[in-house]
Amino acid sequence: MKAGWAVAFLVALLSSPLPGAGLESIHSRLLDRDVPIAVHVPAPEVIARWRSAHPGQSLRLVLFLPGAFDGPRDFLKSGLEAHLSEQEAAGHLPPSLWVAVTHFQSWYADRIDGSFPFERFLMEELIPMLEVRHPGFGGTPQARSLAGLSMGGFGALNLAARTVAFSKCLALSPALVEPPFRQVPWWIRRSLTRTFSMDPVRFEPWNPRLHLGGSVDLVVACGTEDKYGLANASRAFAGNCQLRNRPLQLELRPGGHDWAYWTPTFKTWMPWLLNLEESRGSGPGPVAKSRLGPMIGP
Question: Domain span at residue 91?
Fold first, then answer.
């Protein structure tokens, strides 16, 4: 990851400590605007207790990417942040640092004309800032995870492949879009055409059907009643991965394109995102099993 940002910018960002859990805004030099975020920071006593029991173990940073109609506030409203705090306090999950970001309909990518470099903001400003503020969390690809839903699932697959800065990726109901983007409503299509080229060849670096999320440990999950047909798209994506010997795990189970599906599914896969099985000394691996559809992997 590039560290292309000034020391003065770091000092300014560090002047206001992050709250333990809640909403705040940070200023992005690259985007020339304030960016609302929500951050989950484990309680100090929880961190100390875990580190005492697991000396030398890295703690994870998780970048959480909301969907087109969601934002940082939904990370709190959905109960995910509260669940993390409860599970950490009980010792059921390792402490982890989570950040949910405002996407500005960016699709988590740099605009093709260079006018809104959102991917660069994430990788050159946001993550370095958090890792300086909270030493011991993240710092290497092996200690970073991605999680996203819908537009955020698309963004998570792209960031996993393009940055090589993460080792695990959970893509829920990923919006597997391609030019000319007719599979989405017109008001969503506007943001896509503002960000990406309509030329399929120029779009290839952002096409998950081609790069398959890179080489991270990958879970793709979707509700079988998804109103946008993303369950079938996810199954086709997994089939393409299987043809190309790209390991992943696919979970399809009852649910729609909404938080009634996303919240319990995120909770199910949190231990996997945080390497809980490895922490317990039983080796890495998922802790959830598919109810519908195959689990595809080596």
Answer: 7-279
